[in-house]
Amino acid sequence: MSGNWTVLDANLVTWMILAVVAFSLFQGFRRGASGSVKQLLFFLVGAVVAVTAVIVAAWAASSVSPHLQIWLTDRNIGRPEPDANFFAQFGYTAITGLRDLSLFRFAVLFLVFHTVIRVVTGLATRVLASVISFPFAIVPGGGAVSRSFGGIIGTALGTGRALLFTAVLFAYCALFPQGPMTDYIQQSGLYREVAAQVIRPATGGLIEERLPVFAREMSGELDQLWLKRYDIIDAELPEDIVRAAVSVTEGKDGEQAKARALYDWVGSRIAYDDDKVKAYEERGDWLEQNPEHTFETRKGVCIDYARLYAAMARAVDLDVRVVTGLGYDGRGGYGAHAWNEVYLTEQDRWISLDSTWAKTGDWFDSPGFTDTHIRKGGITG
After folding, report:
1. Which chain regions cross the lipid bilayer (predicted)?
2. What is the DSSP string of 130-183?
3. Distance between CA atoms of residues 45 and 61, nearest Å
4. d(Cα 104, Cα 220) in Å, to the nearest integer?
5. Last residue of a domain, one of 175, 193, 227
């Protein structure tokens, strides 16, 4: 920036902040001292209660979250039968999401606790503000003196509202540094001054540093939750897939042996569909295919390999999930990719496998798997 900015400029954000203060000043002048004091107290008490509610809800969610995870884990929630209805499948996905995704679990608990706290404290807030402001009710509402004091109090109220508005803008800029309005907001001289002198010191880096990190992590978990839709979409297992999975794993002893047999089968029987990739890259055409389509045509791309493998693994009672992220392209870069993980009960661990790459080497629980596969928040299972 040039450094020639002033606090007052032609930026719309500057005038919106000033308008908040001016409107509150006008309201205060119109209401007089008693009405303005009551509004100011409502705002202050409400702000204190809101901050307290956030702190208490966050503390409660953090405290309860590990206990909820343990409780859900101890329930040994089984996957619904393939012919179970939508609600059973959706319930399984939601509950396992709460069990497996820590930030998602925290967010849900926080929302529940915060809602309960605000409902309980809502009436108490209004009563407390009314009681505190009662002595001011005896002050006449009209008259030059009363209106002047009302204007002063209204200005104080407007300043608080303007600070809150600026904090919201500050949070937006922190979360979306490349957002459509970020540059314009930051060009406001008044915004920058308030942000530098009040918001940034008051929050101590909470908004500017920690909020974006939390948002990115939460976004990753939401991606994981979104991919769990395959638990519902692919819940019904076609008979031909079930028969094939049972046949492939027949005589295999243990989960690892079954998982390996399915990896070998999918990796050798399914051909990579270069035409599908070309159609998407050149024309934007994308063919969404389910596991049965992949099984019948014997063609697909990485997500189709992964979905078919997951369906066959579930058919023989393996705990499996689809993982999305980035895969090494062999030319020094990475591209969008999908693979699977299977849980081995006897070893108490998840193993990674990539049936799409099976024809290029052994990608079943290989030592260098994480060197070529980067998870990007996507897990379903």
Report:
1. 12-29, 41-61, 102-120, 127-146, 152-175
2. HHHHGGGGGS-S-SHHHHHHHHHHHHHHHHHHHHHHHHHHHHHHHH-TT-TTHH
3. 24
4. 10
5. 227
Q: What is the residue type of 348?
A: D
Residue 112: pLDDT band by 50, 70, 90 thresholds?
very high
| Domain, as residue range, for 266 | 237-380
**CATH code, 295:** 3.10.620.30
Surface-to-core class of residue 57, CB atoms within 10 Å of its CB (0-12 exposed, 13-18 middle, 19+ buried): buried
Alpha helices in the chain (DSSP H): 12-74, 86-100, 102-133, 144-175, 182-186, 189-194, 200-203, 211-227, 229-233, 239-249, 255-269, 274-283, 291-297, 302-315, 369-372
Selection from 362, 279, 354 nearest residue 324 by Cα = 354
104 and 208 belong to one structural domain: yes
Nearest to 301 by CA among 280, 321, 274: 274
Tokens of residue 45, six digits: 């008490």
230-244, 271-285, 312-326: range with highest mean pLDDT: 312-326
Residues 6+ positions from 328 with CB-CB distance below 8 Å: 334, 371, 372, 373
Contact between 261 and 248 under an 8 Å Cβ cutoff? The reply is yes
Token pair 């389509």 is found at 293
Model confidence at 53: pLDDT above 70: yes
Structure confidence at residue 178 as a pLDDT band (50, 70, 90): confident
Residue 361 and residue 303 in one domain: yes
Structural domains counted in the chain: 2
Same domain, 141 and 241: no
Answer whether residue 7 is part of any domain.
Answer: no
pTM to 2 decimals?
Answer: 0.59
Residue 297 lies in a domain: yes
Each residue's pLDDT tens digit, 114-159: 889 888 877 666 666 666 655 555 555 556 766 777 778 778 888 8
- Cα(156)–Cα(27) distance, integer angstroms: 12
Q: Give the residues across from 319 on adjacent strands.
A: 343
Let me know whether 213 and 294 are in one domain: no
Whether residue 334 sits in one domain with residue 201: no
End-to-end C-alpha distance for the chain, whole angstroms: 48
Q: Which two tokens stand for residue 13?
A: 């954000």
Cα distances (Å, whole numbers) of residue 74 to 91, 99, 147: 17, 10, 65
Residues 218, 305 within the same domain: no
